Model the fold of this input.
Amino acid sequence: MNILAVIIGPIAAVIITLWYQSRKEKRDAKHRAFLLLMAHRKSIPPNYAMVEVLNTLDIVFSNNLRIVELWHKYYALLAQPYTQERDHTWLELLTEIAKDLSYPTLKQTDMDKFYVPQAFGDQYELQNKIQKEFLRVLENTASLVVKKKENDKT
Done:
């Protein structure tokens, strides 16, 4: 009996450790995904890392069919002209992920709040204006003449 316990004990410990590590890695991936989605939930344009997370939701939350279903609905809405249904589906998706991760006190009203400093908006607007003006000039210019600049210092 002791020999059997000496053999089975370490094997059982290794199996339990591997199972726990696998479970923890999956849970950590879910948490990372949720935190990133929450951090960039209203970013325009969407952050590249956020897009990567969205593209992995089918895998990360494969055990939660409601999350996968909401992600597919949201994905379909992204290909259509904007409606408020897209925002509602997005909030539903975040809510379901919060439930899956045991954040019961996190409400949709909390998730709908998002802080963006005015400076970010101003900078985004300025960059847009510069790009549009630059594009307008390039599209309306037949050719560019490049001359070597004469140096005042000789």
Q: What stands out?
A: The chain has one domain: 2-139. Residues 145 and 151 are 18 Å apart (CA to CA). The chain has six helices and no strands.
